[in-house]
Structure formats: structure tokens, C-alpha cells
Amino acid sequence: MSRVKQRPERFIDEKGRRLDGRLPDEMRPVDIKVGVLSNADGSALVSYGKTKVYGPREPPQRFAILPDRASLFVRYHMAPFSTEERKSPAPTRREIELSKVVREALEPVVLSELFPRTAIEVYVEVLQSDGGTRTASVTAASAALADAGIPMKGLVAGVAVGKVDGVIVLDINEVEDNFGDADMPVAAAPDLGLITLFQLNGVMTIDEMQRGIDMALKAISYIVEKEKEALKGSIEVEAE
Amino acid sequence: MSYTPYRLPVVSRVKSESLINMLKRGLRSDQRDLVSPRNITIEVGVIEKANGSALVKLGKTQVLVGIKIEPGKPFPDTPDEGVLQVNSELVPMASPVFEPGPPDENAIELARVIDRSLRDPKAIDLKSLVIRPGEKAWVVWVDVYVLDYDGNYFDASMLGVMAALMNTKLPEYEETESGELIVHRDKLTTPLKLNKRVVLVTTAKIGDYIVVDPNLDEELIADARLTLAFDEEGNVVGAQKSSIGGYTRSELSRAIEVSRKASQIYFKLLDQALQLGKQAG
Q1: What digits encode the pLDDT tens for the residues A94-136?
Q2: B240 contacts B109 by C-beta, under 8 angstroms
Q3: Do B239 and A199 make contact, defined as CB atoms within 8 angstroms?
Q4: Under CATH, which number does the domain B38-280 receive?
Q5: Does the pLDDT value for residue A4 go beyond 80?
Q6: Could you report the predicted ipTM of this complex, rounded to two decimals?
Q7: Are B3 and A72 in contact (CB < 8 Å)?
Q8: Angle separating helix axes B105-119 and B153-166, nearest 10 degrees
Q9: Which residues, other chains included, contact A38 with Cβ-Cβ below 8 Å and sequence gap of 6+?
Q10: What per-residue string of b and e applies to B18-55 under the rule 16 or more CB within 10 Å gives b?
């Protein structure tokens, strides 16, 4: 994990390697485990490098119920110890926005019309953050929803693409995010061919943006395969 | 906690189908083609007590933006820069779906999208706002008031923010021997320095169609919306997909291309509106 607090002189060395030794289009190791909690209906632990996340449980009836579908409740929250400086546990404006963005990334795939007047609650706790927490959150939430047996049209995963030293790079870490030129989180459901989360923080030309989207989508297909492996693995263990 | 919206008005199936049928013929309910925004009027300097202000009408959507410049302290990590603070209010009189109370996720999203779109391309010259590095600097408070909501408050708000910033003046001040600032709020002389102008362009995806500047009915039947921020060179300086649907890869490309073209229309309208405002004033 990179603990650089100042802007590095350069992000990419003469061999084309990034600060943590990766190539521009290289992901950090992705690890996905499902069924890690006993009280939740479904759960998942996801890490991209050092980003870790938990997800969901299901529904006490509440306000905000809809007559024709299930409501999706999502809370994205960062643990106080997840950041360099302790973060107050009270929800920040950033967390309120990201809760919305993560929810909207999941809405297109959950078959919510099968469960009118109910709620599906998804709690995401970022246990350690090193860049790309909202996209890891989408991946974790997707795996956890599937683990809970919630019917979905497809799995979703996310990854953040960035721009450092003018180069488009995949799965940016915290230093690349804080001191780079752009951060573009993307989430998609590859089996549906649907992009469900898309943001840009920073400056890019349209060409850079298009290349970044393609780079992200390729990585997302890979991450969704990892999700499927984790889910299949959990079923086999139960069958033993 | 974010939850699926539950207070949105329902658009009848008949209306929704007729809107989509019109789109097939390249038409919209308010006589526009798919790629044009609604009529825009911008009035600047509408609030005398603000350092800068603008009232924007984008069709029937109305947004008032006020800029206040107050003395404050630079952030520790940027001692040589002034401070930018963006807030937005979706006031209850603007729509039956807006509720009183502290800003909800939609208001926070609006403020943060505007904030990022100004901050990342360095639209405001924050370095020019330092009075004493690390100690004193001007704080630029941008407050966005959505007064009447007929869809697409993103684009209207950003036009208002840009018009208001271009019309913002810093107050004269004196420093006492003990280092206190005496601000002469009635003497507004120095214009706020801007590095570049930025507009937001929102498109909605309705079925197979991408429409620029959706009105409320179109937003309600849309599958998803995309808001892109552009500078005048055509660089993308911010993006936010919202609403509960998604985009295919080719739809996303189309939306980006349509939005880039529409950004030029917005810049032109911004110029025209400000020019007219000057003549009237």
C-alpha cells in the first residue's frame, strides 16, 4: 500500500511501470469471497489491492415502499480507520452522493419487480481505502446480492480508470487518484452490455475518455468472472 | 442511506407512448428536435447584496445563483489558494417532489457535480484569492437555488453559476496593524478572475433515443441520464450518470458526441444572454 502524501515527481518510470510496479492496463490483484457473514442474508468481501468492502441483508418494512417493485436501500460508508487520517463516522456529503451512485449502479440488474412492497438493503463498509472504493463497493454489493439469492439479470462490477502523466491507467490507487489528472469510475454488467455507473473527476479529451471506457469494460468482464468463480466456489463448499 | 425514489409523479402509459412515438419522428412535446436545448434567458446582477448573481430560465426550469465572497482561511494543504464552496438547495416550492429540510442526496449530488466541474479544470483562479498565504484568503460561496423545476436542473444551474461568477466582484479591504481585515462590502471593484468557462450538458436516454436537455416528462420516462461537463476546447471536465438505468457502449458514445455538440450551443447562448443583459443594464 502506497503511503505517499506528496505529489510524486512522476507516475510512470522509463520502463512504463507505475509507482506500484504495474503496467498502465494492469489491475491490482482482485480477491472476492462470498458468504463471509452469518447474520446477513448475503455478504461478500472484496479487495482490489487494499480496498475492502462488505455488503447486504434484507428488509424490515419501512417508509418508501413501492407498490410495483422492491425498493433498493444502499449505504456506502467508510470505517473511521479506513483512511490515512481518522475519518469521522458521521456520513459526509461524499458518502451521501456515493450511496446514490452505487445504488444507481445496482438498480438496472436487480429484478426488483419480483418483490413489490419490500426493501432490499445493502450496507457497504469500506474497511480500508486505497483508491477505487466506490467501484469495489459495486462489485462487493453485486456479489453479496447474488450470495443472498436475490434474482438479478446479471452481475455488476466496477473499476476506476485514471490519467497520470498523460497516460490512461487502469484501477488507480490512492496516490494516482489524489495527484493524477483524472479519475473515471465505471461499473457495468457485461452480460447485459450495460454501463450502470459512470463518473469523471478531472480533465480528459473525448478520445482519452473513449479509450478509458474500453479499458474499464475489459477489466470489468474479468472481475465479473472472478465474482462468478467466488459464487460457484461457495455453493460447492456448502454441498460437501 | 440512498433509496429508490418513491415520490416521483407517474407518467401515464398513453403519454409515455406518445412521447416515444414523437421521438421516432424526431420531435419532442415542446416542438424541439432531439439535440437542441430549450430557450434560455439569463439575467445577471439580480441580487444586489450578493457579489455576483444570475437568474436562469431554461424553458420552465428556473435557477437563481448567488455568489458571496467572504474573508476566511486557506485549507492547510493549499495555503496559496482561496477556497471554493458550492451548495445547492432544491427548494420545496420548486416541485411537489422536493421536501424541506437539509440538502438530500439529489441536492448534494448537484452541488458536488458543479463543484468538481469548476475545481478540476481550475475554472476559477483560486490563487488570485489569497490575501496572506496560509492565513487569509477569500472564500467563494456559490449557492444554487432551484426555484422552479421542469427537468434538468444541472445545465440550468451551471449556466447560472458561470454567469454569476463572470459578474462577481471582490470587495475592497484594509488590513489593520494587528492583521485584522476590514472589508468594505459596499465597494465591489475587482472582478473575480476566471481561467475558463465550463458548461454542463445533460442528455436523457429514452428507449433508443438520446435527447439533449430533457424536460420533466422526459426525465420521468427516461431510462437513464448523463451529465457531462465541457470546457470551450471540447475537453470533458466532469461526468455523472444518474437515474436507475444504464447505457450500452454505443449509446454512451452517442451521448458523449451529442453532448459535445450541445456544449457549443450552450457557450453561444451564454455569450448572447450576457450580451443582451449588458445592453439592458
Answers
A1: 999 999 999 999 999 999 999 888 888 899 999 999 999 999 9
A2: yes
A3: yes
A4: 3.30.230.70
A5: no
A6: 0.90
A7: yes
A8: 50
A9: none
A10: ebeeebeeeebeeebeebebbebebbbbbbeebbbbbb
The structural domains of chain B, with segments of one domain joined by +, span 38-280
**Quick one: closest CA in A to B230, which residue?**
A203
Domain residue spans of chain A: 30-239
Q: For CA atoms A201, A205, A206, A207, give the dihedral sign.
A: negative
Task: Give yes or no for a contact between B44 and B274, defined as CB atoms under 8 angstroms apart.
Answer: yes
Which spans in chain A are helix H?
93-106, 133-147, 174-179, 206-239
Which residue carries 451564454 as its cell? B270
CATH topology of domain A30-239: Ribosomal Protein S5; domain 2 (3.30.230)
pLDDT tens digits, one per residue of A136-177: 999 999 999 999 889 999 999 999 999 999 999 999 999 999
Across the interface, do A94 and B245 touch by the CB < 8 Å criterion? Answer: no
Q: Closest residue of A to B198, CA-based?
A: A203
What confidence tens digit (pLDDT) does each residue in A58-69 have? 666 566 788 889
Q: Is the pTM of this model over 0.90?
A: yes
In chain B, which residue's Cα lies nearest the Cα of A189?
B246
- Among A57, A85, A93, which would you mutate to test the B interface (most chain B Cβ atoms within 10 Å of its Cβ)? A93
